[in-house]
Design a protein that fits this description.
single chain; mainly beta; Immunoglobulin-like; L,D-transpeptidase catalytic domain-like; five-stranded mixed sheet; 5 helices
Length: about 425
């Protein structure tokens, strides 16, 4: 019978590396029927170089398993599986003659590895050996903090990831991005987008489903990212979405219509920004709710003494931009609501309607404005305008390949995941 070595490639993210050596002498002896033989203890065949005693392996060196030189010869490696304590596989390659296996991806820092080696002697009898070793801890860690805080949000709430240090280069960013996982029930297609070198946002192609469960985790700990940094520990995040609540304001007709799960809840006469202060068009996400806000014109660049200057106590204010755009009570403009746009950019309505709206929405709900003379809400610098970016442009902000986005890359299915 001719046995051809099996080239098993085991996948991982960036990991550290340590040399191992292997030899061939049968501790357990062979059997007349190699297929039915119980694997012998290959401890005499397998040597572990590069880490001894209390010394931890250097994660920046490759892991190598090789057949020792023996007088009788004839043995070879048939398989090597290396995993860390979290179940991540270390990718590697076995030579055609079975003499040597070498890792092809970095080891993780501060990790414990278990290496399972399968051998075969000259008679075809199988041998097994299991080794364990630890890698040294990293000097510099890259940490990630997910947002928002755990809780229930509207279907427009993006997930954010804030990194402790800037990550440069597509290769290093891809290492980070592959390690950040977002799973939802029901499942949706989504993608990370790099806002800058320290910030990522994640959103589905369309809005989150109503009443979804979302779990965000990181497998970055110990992974070599680059520039001397390895991933640090991170806290997972669990979110839920509530009903799909969306307010659509038509500045041309001066009406806001509020929907809940596709059904109209209420139509509200409103006033939006007047010429020179036009309300931003596009999709915005509720950032917070404040029952009382003191609004001053100086906060948006209007000088005191100007004809446009104002200083007003405002009730039932629902914030949609960090720069101060709200949906709020505006009792001073009730006569214009439903008829004209007279505000400085906010969406104003009666006190009763503003109180109702305040109680009807939550953080993450959608507020869309159309037919205004204003610019479109920007994606990232003034709140969550993420939904105003086309899906293909959103995906272009990812560091991953097209195959990894659409799931057609077979390596992506195994990367960073334990074997079932």
């Amino acid at each position: 019978m001719t046995h051809s070595p099996r080239n098993r490639t085991v996948l991982s993210c960036a990991l550290l590396i340590v040399p191992i050596a292997l030899g061939v002498t049968g501790c357990g002896g062979g059997s007349s029927d190699p297929l039915s033989a119980k694997p012998f203890d290959a401890a005499g065949q397998v040597g572990f170089a590069g880490s001894g005693g209390n010394r931890k392996a250097d994660p920046d060196k490759p892991l190598t398993v090789s057949v020792k030189d023996t007088s009788d010869g004839g043995g070879r490696i048939t398989d090597v599986t290396a995993t860390d304590a979290t179940g991540r596989f270390l990718r590697g390659e076995l030579t055609a003659d079975g003499d040597r296996w070498r890792s092809t991806a970095p080891l993780a820092a501060g990790a414990h590895y278990t290496v399972r080696v399968s051998t075969e002697d000259e008679d075809g009898s199988p041998g097994r050996e299991t080794l364990g070793f630890d890698t040294a801890a990293a000097d510099k860690l890259l940490r990630v903090r997910f947002g928002p805080d755990s809780g229930t949000y509207g279907v427009g709430q993006p997930v954010t990831a804030e990194l402790s240090a800037r990550v440069k280069g597509r290769k290093a960013r891809a290492v980070v991005e592959r390690s950040l996982r977002v799973a939802s029930q029901p499942a949706v297609k989504g993608s990370w987008h790099w806002v800058d070198g320290k910030t990522l946002h994640y959103r589905p192609r369309d809005y989150w489903p109503a009443h979804a469960r979302i779990e965000v985790t990181s497998a970055l700990e110990g992974i070599k990212v680059g520039n001397g940094r390895h991933g640090g520990p991170s806290k997972p995040l669990k979110l839920r979405t509530g009903d799909r609540v969306e307010a659509i304001t038509d500045s041309g007709s001066h009406q806001m219509t509020v929907f809940k799960n596709g059904e109209v809840l209420r139509s509200i006469p409103v006033t939006t920004g007047k010429p020179g202060f036009s309300t931003r068009n596009g999709v915005k996400v509720v950032l917070g709710r404040e029952s009382f806000v003191r609004m001053r014109g100086t906060s948006i660049g209007i000088s005191e003494g100007s004809s446009d200057s104002y200083d007003l106590p405002v009730l039932w204010a629902t914030r949609v931009t960090w720069s101060g755009e709200y949906v709020h009570a505006a009792p001073w403009s009730v006569g214009s609501q439903g008829a004209a746009n007279v505000s400085h950019g906010c969406t104003g309505m009666s006190t009763g309607n503003a109180h109702w709206f305040f109680n009807a929405v939550r953080v993450g709900d959608l507020v869309t404005v159309k037919n205004s003379g204003g610019e479109t809400m920007t994606p990232f610098d003034n709140g969550f305008g993420d939904w105003n970016m086309k899906w293909k442009d959103w995906q272009a902000g990812s560091a991953l390949t097209r195959g990894e986005h659409d799931g057609s890359d077979p390596a992506d299915a195994a990367r960073l995941r334990p074997q079932v």
